[in-house]
Amino acid sequence: MANDKNGKKKHSLFTRFAKKTASITGKPVTFLGAVMVIVFWGLSGPVFGYSDTWQLVINTGTTIITFLMVFLIQNTQNRDTLAVQLKLDELICAIQEADNEVLDLEDDDETELEEKHQRMVELAEEAKKSIASMNKKKGNSGVQDETNDDR
Question: What pTM did the predictor assign?
Answer without folding.
Answer: 0.60
